[in-house]
Amino acid sequence: MRPPAVTFKLPETDERLTNTMQLAYCLAFLRTPQPFDDPLTQNWLQTTGTDTNEQGRLILIATEMIRAFKRDGLEDAKAVAEVACLAPVLEKDDFRHLKELYLAWNSLAYWIFVNYGALLNRYRVLIKDTLTRTTL
């Protein structure tokens, strides 16, 4: 199999992950049934592939990230990008939740884009009225 473009250190069982990309990397390897040339990767796959607790832990971390993203209303570009990197490796329900959040966020952004001119004109009128009243 062709080596990934970006690599991360695969964690030991129950070891803390360093970032979201490492989590996505690990989950992607667990979904790949092919053997790897790298003995460390192959060993990690054999060990983690048979450890249902570790697999469950990694999946739970991804699920909890989606829940936190939804619960906390994180909508800045950095948070969206971080959670979006998990999309290819999410469980079906978690992916659906992420998609719904993205569509809702996109709908709001689209509404603002479409109505920006009207909102801007409304604020200009409001500012003009306020300035007129204060100068009288």
Features:
136 residues, mainly alpha
Q: How would you describe this structure to a colleague?
A:
With 136 residues, the chain is mainly alpha-helical. The chain is built from five helices and no strands. The protein has helices at residues 20-30, 39-50, 52-72, 77-84, 92-135. Helix 1 packs across helix 3 and helix 3 packs parallel to helix 5 (92-135).
SSE inventory with pairings:
Layout: H1 20-30, H2 39-50, H3 52-72, H4 77-84, H5 92-135
Strand content: under 5%
End-to-end C-alpha gap:
77 Å
Q: What characterizes the major β-sheet?
A: none
Identify low-pLDDT runs: none
Shape: elongated
Indicate the radius of gyration in whole angstroms.
23 Å
Per DSSP, the total helix count is 5
Q: Give average pLDDT, whole number.
A: 75
Question: How would you classify the quaternary structure?
Answer: single chain
Structural category is mainly alpha
**Helix-strand topology string:** HHHHH
**Helix percentage range:** over 70%
How many beta strands in the DSSP annotation?
A: 0
Q: Nutshell version of this structure?
A:
The chain is mostly helical.
